[in-house]
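Example for tutorial group B:
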């Protein structure tokens, strides 16, 4: 009987919405048409189907906003030269893709962050946004409103 209750509780509280909210966000910056990005995308799709992951994808070749975000994230992470593919897991990143090296590094970073102990550097950058622009200087009147045309201010 207790086993049935546990199973029922698991089914009720592990809804897809809850799972999506609790999933580890992995941020993938890529370029449409980039062959290395396509190979990393295949790896990410495989990992996403097996684990509690949510891959957030940012295409940078045709989206100036995503390119700007990549540059701000790279600056925050002190990445020397951001290029694609650029993957962020927690507050660590991987640039480029190599069939022999990248899959193991990505799996290691994900395993490290799955318990939920890693900060989300991309969310921190997005949340911080851009600094507010300074207010415009106050307008200096050039003439008194009641002055006659041509009169000195």
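The residue assignment follows.
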């Amino acid at each position: 009987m207790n086993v049935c209750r546990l199973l029922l509780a698991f089914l009720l509280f592990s809804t897809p919405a809850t799972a999506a909210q609790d999933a580890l966000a992995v941020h993938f910056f890529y370029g449409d048409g980039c062959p290395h990005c396509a190979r990393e995308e295949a790896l990410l799709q495989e990992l996403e189907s097996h684990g509690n992951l949510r891959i957030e994808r940012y295409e940078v070749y045709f989206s100036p906003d995503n390119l700007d975000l990549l540059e701000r994230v790279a600056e925050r992470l002190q990445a020397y030269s951001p290029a694609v593919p650029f993957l962020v897991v927690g507050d660590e990143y991987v640039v480029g893709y190599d069939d022999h090296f990248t899959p193991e590094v990505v799996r290691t970073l994900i395993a490290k962050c799955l318990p939920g102990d890693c900060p989300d550097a991309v969310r921190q950058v997005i949340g911080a946004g851009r600094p507010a622009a300074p207010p415009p200087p106050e307008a200096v009147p050039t003439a008194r409103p009641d002055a006659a045309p041509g009169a000195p201010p």
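Helices lie at 2-13, 16-22, 35-50, 64-77, 102-113, 121-128. Compare this with the pattern of hydrophobic and polar residues in the output above.
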